């Protein structure tokens, strides 16, 4: 296939160099966006009298035919084309001749690719937001079904205080809600059309960039043509948001992996989301969660690759920027893959409430509640804290827990302690009396569930 830029050159591009230079094998996925952008461009050229109405009509119709043929498989993407833009233009020219050659008037591949990738990322970004909504719905369902399950809450991976399992799940719901907000913000900033910036300096033709932008669903146009073709901030922003999504999925995966272990045994994953061992017949491995955790590093790498590619590029467009696509495409594919398997894995997860409660009964996680009890009896908190610590030390020495201390043993530490101490340090009381907004109390958890539900419905 003759290159569109062949007029300047006396020799053909070396075959290995041509393969190295080509981006069709990865930018072919933007064929729909490339065709949509070309349709809008043809319509604008005709509206300004730069292209005849007849040529524009023929171009738009034929581009629609090309789109249908690619989608049906009737037209395969030709390996010799340099990129998706050249492939579509060559196919258009092959079908309608000179009219196809007129389409590239008042544009460059520089602004063309900048439009294509924005259109593509806008669509994929919205799709990932929808997938996050589906994950949130599963989290809320698990939270609603387990509002009575008490588990130990942890700091430093040490048992700290009793919490509701639903409260713990909803912490991840808040994270994923922020992820949706980040994606929305990035997509909004990205939604400006660079089409008409041309190579870097604009064009001598009297074009209408605003009409093209509106036709393609953009909120407006980029106001500097150099920035229009060289900006990839939106790729960095989206990659950062994707990396944060993966970080949250990875943290969640890590906890599920821990909870599945015999050391915790708080949950059991469905057989359809676990694997076995080739040699140990007893094994049930949380491989799906482990893979999600592992793939997080891959998306981090995509973000770092993008930042590194962009860090030393002078204005305006440089071929280095072709590297933006493989990084952002890989991140999109990875995030979507993880968000496809994670919600059903979570939905099928069995919560072992008795094991959670048994673990919560150990580790003195009601020690803070004992201190609060003493404070309400009139002791300064630091004094109450010390007495509670002494009670823990005594229990460790005697091999018992706080609930098992006799009233006489308690009064030996503090005469103000009365029979009602046992109610105060009961795990159900510990959870129920945490009434502060956002806390683990049942009413607070119900409010959190309602909040997340409302957010899902209005995203």
List the helices and strands and how they pair.
Blueprint: H1 15-21, H2 24-27, H3 31-47, H4 53-72, H5 84-96, H6 98-101, H7 109-145, E1 150-155, E2 158-164, H8 165-190, H9 209-215, H10 225-230, H11 233-260, E3 267-268, H12 287-310, H13 323-347, E4 350-351, H14 353-360, H15 367-376, H16 381-398, H17 407-413, H18 421-424, H19 427-432, H20 442-458
Antiparallel strand pairs: 1-2, 3-4
Describe the structure.
A hairpin with a 2-residue loop joins strand 1 and strand 2. The strands form two sheets. Strands 1-2 form a two-stranded antiparallel ribbon. The protein starts with 14 loop residues before the first helix and ends with a helix. It is built from 20 helices and four strands. Helix content is 63%, strand content 4%. The protein has three domains: 12-105, Orthogonal Bundle (Fumarase C, Chain B, domain 1), CATH 1.10.275.10; 110-143 and 162-351, Fumarase C, Chain A, domain 2 (Up-down Bundle); 360-449, Ribonucleotide Reductase Protein R1, domain 1. Helix 4 packs across helix 5 (84-96). It is mostly helical. It is elongated, with a radius of gyration of 31 Å.
Reading side by side through the largest sheet, how are the strands ordered?
Answer: 1-2
- The number of helical runs is 20
Distance between the termini: 47 Å
Order of helices and strands: HHHHHHHEEHHHHEHHEHHHHHHH
CATH superfamily of the largest domain: Fumarase/aspartase (Central domain)
Global geometry: elongated
Spans with pLDDT under 50 lasting ≥5 residues?
none
Nearest-angstrom radius of gyration? Answer: 31 Å
| Structural class designation | mainly alpha
């Amino acid at each position: 296939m003759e290159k569109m830029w062949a007029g300047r050159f006396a020799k053909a591009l070396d075959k290995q160099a041509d393969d190295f230079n080509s981006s069709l094998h990865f930018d072919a996925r933007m064929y729909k966006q490339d065709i949509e952008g070309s349709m809008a461009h043809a319509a604008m050229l005709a509206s300004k009298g730069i292209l005849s109405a007849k040529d524009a009509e023929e171009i738009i119709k034929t581009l629609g035919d090309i789109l249908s043929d690619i989608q049906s498989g009737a037209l395969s993407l030709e390996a010799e084309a340099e990129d998706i833009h050249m492939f579509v233009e060559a196919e258009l020219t092959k079908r309608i001749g000179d009219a196809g050659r007129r389409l590239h008037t008042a544009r460059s591949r520089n602004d063309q690719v900048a439009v294509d990738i924005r259109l593509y990322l806008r669509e994929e970004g919205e799709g990932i937001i929808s997938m996050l909504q589906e994950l949130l719905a599963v989290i809320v369902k698990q939270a609603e079904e387990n509002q009575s399950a008490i588990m130990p809450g942890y700091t430093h991976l040490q048992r700290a205080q009793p919490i509701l399992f639903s409260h713990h799940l909803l912490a991840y719901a808040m994270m994923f809600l922020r992820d949706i907000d980040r994606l929305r913000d990035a997509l909004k900033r990205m939604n400006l059309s660079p089409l008409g910036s041309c190579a870097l300096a604009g064009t001598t033709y009297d074009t209408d960039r605003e009409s093209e932008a509106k036709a393609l669903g953009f909120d407006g146009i980029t106001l500097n043509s150099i920035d229009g073709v060289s900006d990839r901030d939106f790729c960095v922003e989206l990659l950062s948001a994707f990396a944060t999504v993966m970080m949250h999925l990875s943290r969640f995966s890590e906890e599920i992996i821990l909870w599945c272990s015999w050391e915790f045994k708080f949950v059991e994953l469905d057989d359809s989301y676990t694997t076995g061992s080739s040699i140990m017949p007893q094994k049930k491995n949380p491989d799906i969660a482990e893979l999600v955790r592992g793939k997080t590093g891959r998306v981090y790498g995509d973000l770092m690759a993008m930042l590194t590619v962009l860090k030393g590029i002078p204005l305006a467009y440089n071929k280095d920027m072709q590297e933006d696509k493989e990084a952002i495409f890989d991140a999109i594919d990875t995030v979507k893959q993880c968000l496809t398997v994670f919600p059903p894995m979570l939905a099928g997860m069995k919560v072992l409430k008795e094991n959670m409660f048994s673990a919560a009964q150990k580790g003195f996680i009601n020690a803070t509640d004992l201190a609060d009890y003493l404070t309400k009896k009139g002791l300064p908190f630091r004094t109450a804290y010390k007495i509670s610590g002494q009670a823990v030390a005594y229990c460790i020495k005697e091999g018992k827990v706080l609930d098992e201390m006799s009233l006489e043993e308690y009064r030996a530490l503090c005469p103000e302690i009365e029979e009602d101490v046992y109610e105060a340090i009961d795990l159900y009381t510990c959870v129920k009396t945490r009434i502060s907004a956002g806390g683990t109390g049942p009413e607070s958890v119900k409010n959190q569930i309602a909040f997340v539900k409302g957010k899902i419905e209005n995203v």
